[in-house]
Design a protein that fits this description.
By secondary structure, the chain is of the alpha/beta class. It is built from 15 helices and 20 strands. The strands form 4 sheets. Strands 7-6-8-5-9-10-11-12-13-14 form a 10-stranded mixed beta sheet. It has a 6-stranded mixed beta sheet with strand order 15-16-20-17-18-19, with helices on both faces. Helix 5 crosses helix 8, helix 5 packs across helix 9 and helix 10 packs parallel to helix 12.
Length: 435
């Protein structure tokens, strides 16, 4: 939503918006001129907006009974989803979509950086803050391409018409929206069918999708994929891998951010960028200079005795990818994780997966479930989750007690994990562990 807000601010429009709590993103929008509020302004809207001059864009994260939303509905305003507006704004460009239940934010941001550093340049609407250009919105009006993070939540990505697309993963999620795994998979098939028949689908090998669009596959240590990343390694402070593929045999590609999952994300970008015409030199330079995305494997402390990384992982598959990468990079270090479950339905639907992955930690600090738009579900609690996790050293704590508890953590690899408001702890932990 904030990327759209930045777009309209760049077009000199008046932007008003609601968010549940203040954050660095809302502070950034306010500094750019947006009028952001954190209370329900339903009783004030009549004096602030008019149906003739106001575009209302809603996110499905807003509860159906929220006063401002009810006001707009009762007064007959047309309400648009974020994805609908994205579809309208990008229809005059060649859209490069990045979809998938995991990795789409890092991959779309990496793709935007690669193109922006090349002769092609691009526009971009992203789901995370790029560490390279400090925003989730990139404007190059003369560019031919627009990178779009294609979100499967609420079937939003079906509003797009991509020229080409990457699909990174299709692990079931958002079953509160889709109902069944079959419906979820159909949503991705419907999205794949929207890709221009003259375009390209870059698909992680093994994802069962079929389309009339030309398709290339990719995978890490996967000889059956069209593009294969091999020999992932960490040498002299550099994260390196090799790539083999159609007319490609590149050695020692350096990626600016480490991690097995990031090498996989980079591989998909390599495949698409080769098709778009970027040179090997442009691709290597873009990958080497990529600094990542805020809250995606983001380093905050790197001492000889303690490393602190913050990550947005909120699904068992994402937590697995995170921990696999930690074990590759720091094989003999103790792993301490602070995890905030996100949504009661996700905790219920993937309960066993969370238990399996969180049990890999040497020490776990578990937080209460972050509800977002949901009401509690009887029997689905952090207490129940903690009881099933086999890690010997584990504790359930509210956010208010975590910083004091962490005074006992002096070494190892410390992780904050989750998609709720756990990010509010990150600057406090970083400051305390840097001293």
């Amino acid at each position: 939503m904030s990327a759209l807000a930045k777009y309209f601010l760049s077009e000199n429009k008046v932007v008003l918006g609601y968010d549940k709590t203040p954050s660095p993103i809302t502070e950034d929008l306010i500094s750019l001129g947006a009028q952001i509020h954190f209370e329900d302004w339903a009783n004030q809207l009549a004096s602030l907006v008019s149906i003739e001059t106001t575009l209302i864009i809603r996110t499905p994260a807003v509860p159906a009974n929220f006063g401002e939303l009810v006001y707009f509905q009762e007064k007959g305003y047309s309400l648009f989803k974020r994805s609908e507006i994205l579809g309208i704004l990008t229809r005059n460009y060649k859209g490069l979509g990045v979809a998938g239940t995991h990795g789409k934010t890092t991959t779309s941001t990496m793709l935007a950086h690669l193109l922006n550093e090349s002769s092609l340049h691009c526009n971009a609407f992203l789901g995370g803050i790029s560490s390279n250009f400090g925003s989730n919105f990139l404007s190059n009006p003369e560019a031919e391409f627009t990178v779009i993070e294609a979100d499967e939540f609420d079937r939003s990505f079906l509003q797009l018409k991509p020229y080409a697309s990457i699909i990174t993963a299709m692990d079931a999620d958002h079953l509160d929206i889709y109902g069944t795994v079959e419906n979820f998979n159909k949503g991705f098939q419907d999205y794949a069918d929207l890709i221009d028949e003259n375009g390209l689908l870059v698909l992680k090998n093994g994802i069962p999708l079929n389309t009339n669009t030309k398709t290339v596959t990719y995978g890490v240590e996967d000889v059956n994929a069209d593009y294969n990343a091999t020999k992932l390694r960490f040498e002299n402070g550099k994260f390196l891998f090799d790539v083999t593929g159609s007319a490609v045999d590149w050695k020692s590609i350096e990626l600016g951010i480490p991690g097995i999952h990031n090498a996989e994300n980079a591989l998909s970008c390599i495949a698409l960028c080769i098709w778009l015409g970027l040179t090997e030199r442009e691709i290597r330079n873009g990958l080497q200079t990529f600094k990542g995305v805020k809250r995606r494997f983001e380093y905050h402390v790197q001492r000889s005795d303690l490393v602190y990384i913050d990550d947005y992982a909120h699904h068992p598959t994402e937590i697995k990818a995170l921990l696999d990468s930690i074990e590759l990079l720091y094989p003999n270090r103790k792993k301490i994780g602070i995890f905030q479950p996100h949504l009661f339905t996700r905790t219920r639907d993937f309960f066993d997966g969370f238990v399996e992955q969180l049990s890999r930690l040497d020490e776990l600090i578990l937080m209460p479930i972050y509800p977002a738009r949901e009401e509690p579900i009887p029997g689905i609690t952090s207490e129940k989750l903690l009881a099933e996790i086999t890690t010997t050293k584990k504790i359930l704590l509210p956010a208010s007690e975590i910083v004091n508890y962490l005074e006992t953590v002096q070494d190892g690899v410390l992780l904050t994990i989750g998609a709720g408001d756990i990010d509010r702890l990150v600057p406090i932990i970083s400051k305390n562990k840097t001293i």
